[in-house]
């Protein structure tokens, strides 16, 4: 959750609260990999905006309830998340197509992938497989596709490289 936007954090919190309304802030923080203060700040915002209500379940225990407005927000945030994920997928696919065309023009059939987040690497790996480009772990004389966030850089053995943006 540390690399997520504020909207994505709200979405994750709403989903977690829906799964377990009796979850404590400490439990939510542990599940999400953030500090309790971060969860507290997000929950206060969601409560102030009317997306979550708090009820006292026991003397020192709170129960979080998602309001109808919170359910609508979760639905909208889910749609936004899917839309942005698909945009990222299309962007990586388009950049990989350009990189793979360059490889094929140079008659390269084997490449090494380097860097990138697991999700982006998976998209790159699938793109290579679909194009008939084999992926190796060997550091021999093969070209390298360097994945740097959303940039795709083809490195050739002669030191030349091209960034696909």
Topology record:
Blueprint: H1 6-19, H2 25-32, H3 36-48, E1 52-56, E2 62-66, H4 68-105, E3 110-115, H5 118-130, E4 134-135, E5 144-148, E6 151-155, E7 161-164
Parallel strand pairs: 3-4, 3-5
Antiparallel strand pairs: 1-2, 5-6, 6-7
Report what the structure shows:
It is a single chain. The chain has 165 residues and is of the alpha/beta class. The chain folds into 2 domains: 6-66, Orthogonal Bundle (Arc Repressor Mutant, subunit A); 88-164. The chain is 52% helix and 19% strand. The chain contains 5 helices and 7 strands; from the N terminus they run αααββαβαββββ. It has helices spanning 6-19, 25-32, 36-48, 68-105, 118-130; strands at residues 52-56, 62-66, 110-115, 134-135, 144-148, 151-155, 161-164. The chain has a 5-stranded mixed sheet, covered by helices on one side. A hairpin with a 5-residue loop joins strand 6 and strand 7. The radius of gyration is 22 Å and the shape is elongated. The mean pLDDT is 89.
